[in-house]
Amino acid sequence: MRAGPTFTQPIQTTRTFEAAIENIVEAIERARLGRGDQLPSESDLATQLGISKPTLRQALRVLERAGLLTVRQGKGGGIFVASDLIPSDAILGAVALEEGFIVDVLRGRRVLETAITEFAAAVATRDDFGEIERSIGLLRTHLGDRAMVMRADAMFHRAVVRASHNQTLQAAMRGVVRDLAAIRDSYSGGLGQDERTLAVHVRQLEAMRRGDAAELAGVLDEHFTMLEDAFAAAIGRTSADLFGPAAR
Questions:
Q1: 139: burial class by Cβ within 10 Å (0-12, 13-18, 19+)?
Q2: 54 Cβ partners below 8 Å, 6+ apart?
């Protein structure tokens, strides 16, 4: 690897996988890397870019699909340049495919998480509600610490799904959560957004405890819309374009 100790710079704009792709491509050209040359490790790249590993992996997946990089696992593995020329058109096409995948994930989340939450509200025990409330308390405690807020938010959603007491539903939701990991990190954040997330979580728990189906549906819609709006804005679209009835 011919790159210097700092291969690329932190992302200063919206922390999306698209920005990570641009920075990595620029760094490859700046360092004059060619086919077979190795990039910094995944951990080093994530640190230098100032993004999480899930977001980096999303960017690497796109660049691998486009033919610019090869990612090898295991001993002797790493991230390697696969082409002497930047396949710009292929990268744009791969980004479009990834964005389409994200739209599918967010739509699927609406359907599955809504059904699971409504079911959980009907069967949850006092202990289940206590676990959900505990996650809300942790989120409140860590406002301002993005990494800890993300953990508390994930804990909240796991507690809600566990409250369904249904292994099939829990397994289905785990797949959605895996796909959501990079999306949530890339397109959400900031103290104002985290405070809004806290407020939505509080209202969701209250609606679940009361068995208020109408209120719960409204809170869930607001919660889903937050991430959908952030994603749509990041790619220069609107939620109506991507998620409205006409887009389905």
A1: buried
A2: 181, 182, 185
Counting beta carbons within 10 angstroms of the beta carbon of residue 105, is it exposed (0 to 12), middle (13 to 18) or buried (19 or more)?
Answer: middle
**How far is Cα of residue 205 from the mean position of the Cα atoms in its chain?**
23
CB 82 within 8 A of CB 69: yes
Name the one residue in this structure whose structure tokens are 């939450």: 117
CA atoms within 13 A on the CB side of 90: 14
Q: Fold for domain 17-86?
A: Arc Repressor Mutant, subunit A (1.10.10)
- Enter the tokens of residue 25: 């491509």
CATH C-level class of 99-247: mainly alpha
Express each pLDDT in 27-49 by its tens digit. 999 999 999 999 999 999 999 99
pLDDT in tens, 206-228: 999 999 999 999 999 999 999 99
Provide the whole-model pTM.
0.80
Expressed in percent and rounded to 5, the helix, strand and coil fractions of the chain are 70, 5, 25
* Residue position matching structure tokens 């990494």: 147
Do the Cβ atoms of 185 and 211 come closer than 8 Å? no
What does the domain layout of the chain look like in residue ranges? 17-86, 99-247
